[in-house]
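Might I ask for a little of your time on a matter of protein folding? The record follows directly beneath this note:
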Amino acid sequence: MHEERTDKPVALVTGAAKGIGAACCLALAREGFRLGIHYRRSMEEAEELLREVQDGFLLRADLADPDQIDDMVRRVSAEAGRVDVLVNNAGMSINQTMMQMKIDQFDTQRTILKGTWYLVKRILRTFMLRQSSGRIINISSVVAHTGHAGQVAYTMEKAGVDALTKSVAQELGDRGILVNSVAPGFIQTDMTADIPDQVREGISEKIPLGRMGRPEEVADVVRFLASRGSYIQGSVIHVNGGLYSG
């Protein structure tokens, strides 16, 4: 495949077809980035998003499979020849109490953290270390810091994402690459759409701003870290309406 090199900055967003990922793509497109739009199953939504951002390309891969990650990185290299920003947004939540969760459910949740680690490694080696520049933005969660009943494996995964952020930031401190996390609170996405109204009202009452957040409000912070924020490194930025302040 012919490699198309471009001077336009490139942002790769995982889990980009819907919710926070899609909002990040739109925000970064407005900032002047060409978008690598990753998805696993939501092909129609990804294609619609590509039409909205106009300048981008689609990347289908299961991030639980290292071979598919390798193939995706090769496709990014062929399409753009660079990655300036990586937004690790892809995720899933297997909700189950500690006593009821099965080992195979835990292992499925664990593969998300493994995939994030491996993708960061590949993007660093293939692009950012050679460029001596780049921004890695990991989407974490407020529950990584507060805990949440019925989400033991998910909270462990997201806490691991923040630990990854802090450790990699220390390793890359002198290489021109910034690594940070954005930890959303309760955001209006497909993941929270099934919350019963009564529970939703109870959550909103605990949030000082009195409401759940919007994907665009998380994307605004990602956009800042991707394009400005030049003295922020190894940090977890909370976007939760005051629910948790760190």
